[in-house]
TrEMBL record:
Cofactor entry: [2Fe-2S] cluster
InterPro entries reported for this sequence: 2Fe-2S_ferredoxin-like_sf (IPR036010), 2Fe-2S_ferredoxin-type (IPR001041), 2Fe2S_fd_BS (IPR006058), Beta-grasp_dom_sf (IPR012675), Cbr1-like_FAD-bd_dom (IPR008333), FAD-bd_FR_type (IPR017927), Flavoprot_Pyr_Nucl_cyt_Rdtase (IPR001709), FNR_nucleotide-bd (IPR039261)
Domain 2Fe-2S ferredoxin-type: 19-108
Protein name, as recorded: CDP-4-dehydro-6-deoxyglucose reductase
Record-level Gene Ontology MF annotations: 2 iron, 2 sulfur cluster binding; oxidoreductase activity
Alphabetized CDD domains for the sequence: fer2, flavin_oxioreductase
Organism: Celeribacter persicus
Domain FAD-binding FR-type: 114-212
Length: 347
């Protein structure tokens, strides 16, 4: 029997025994200290479990508990109640309270290793009140990446800021959609001072969120805010395949003036065989576009999601709710991919 518990304080933790974690797929095992997360222990032991953000938001490190019990200091947003009920846990946050047997994915062996990239600013455009579109041209060849991945901007101090790539690998530029955080060192400072021709240092690509062409399922793409950026990259890549699957894209914003990419999305979709685009506005009056929350609009239109591959990108709150409700609507837990945009106040 699998048990998952969340505790804000673990009593007598220093008396807990060392636990062993065994991978069902390979039989490999590694030890976990009471204070360690499963992911940290695995990486320390040379077991490269799939992972990305390490903060409990993206869900990339999801494992399935076949035997044993784990605890969390706080419930992670990247895991729905339905997934917990099916025995899933997030390795980056979970700690073992006893020996575990788990089913888990490893990092892809064919992933492209991140590289240093020097780029030149093509344009810096304020596309709506708090979003800037930054276009960059890499010096030399375009770096290899998968549609949906992100890249780090490296500042002069060596600090990094992560942004999803909105362009496809064939577009010969790196397109970033950046929400300005008031007072943010990069987004409200450095970024606004960039001019065409300026040099920007990048490092990437990063991330496991990417298009899974092998799924052979209709695609449901759901975004809030600048979460539209990696989905735009996917659309740009999909238009190159005339035999691609049906695609439905739902984009949640607050007001119509914030739909900065609507015309471009419609133009990309027009090159697909079967495409629908539904903007959903949470604060706008009744009018041209749907009103409400994006996950509600999806379920109103698609009450049965059992055949879809689903890509969620945007706010952690939207992703957490959508993931749970979409599973209730029949979505396959193995075909939901998420990229959670967690904004730090010092960005």
């Amino acid at each position: 029997m699998t048990i998952i518990r969340a505790l804000h304080k673990i009593e007598n933790e220093d008396q807990a025994a060392l636990a062993q974690v065994t991978l069902a797929e390979t039989g490999d095992a590694f030890s976990v200290e009471p204070h360690e997360t499963i992911l940290a222990a695995a990486l320390n032991a040379g077991v490269d479990l799939a992972h990305d953000c390490k903060t409990g938001f993206c869900g990339s490190c999801r494992i399935r508990l076949l035997d044993g019990e784990v605890v969390y200091d706080e419930e992670p947003l990247g895991l729905s109640e339905e997934e917990r009920g099916c025995g899933f846990a997030l390795a980056c946050q979970a700690r073992a309270r006893m020996n575990l047997k788990i089913s888990a994915e490893l990092m892809p062996t064919d992933r492209v290793e991140p590289v240093e990239i020097l780029s030149e600013v093509i344009s810096v455009t304020q596309v709506c009140d708090d979003i800037i579109r930054l276009r960059l041209r890499p010096e030399g060849e375009m770096p290899a990446f998968q549609p949906g991945q992100y890249i780090n901007v490296v500042t002069e101090s060596g600090a990094t800021r992560s942004f999803s790539i909105a362009s496809s690998p064939s577009e010969a530029e790196i397109d970033l959609h950046i929400r300005v955080i008031p007072g943010g060192m990069y987004t409200d400072g450095v970024l606004k001072g960039l001019i065409p021709g300026a040099k920007v240092h990048l490092h990437g690509p990063h991330g496991l969120f990417c298009l899974h062409a092998e799924d052979f399922r209709p695609l449901l793409l759901v975004a809030t805010g600048t979460g539209i950026a990696p989905l735009r990259a996917m659309l740009a890549a999909l238009k190159e395949d005339r035999d691609g699957p049906p695609v439905a894209l739902y984009w949640g914003m607050r007001e119509e003036r914030e739909l900065y990419l609507a015309e471009e999305i419609a133009a990309l979709g027009a090159e697909l065989e079967d495409f629908s685009f539904v903007p959903v506005l949470s604060r706008a009056p009744e009018g041209v576009h749907r009103r409400g929350y994006v996950q509600d609009a999806v379920l109103a239109d698609l009450p049965d999601l059992s055949e879809h591959a689903i890509y969620l990108c945007g706010s952690p709150e939207m992703i957490a709710e959508a993931r749970g409700r979409f599973l209730e609507a029949g979505a396959s837990v193995n075909h939901i991919y998420a990229d959670s945009f967690h904004f730090a106040h010092n960005l």
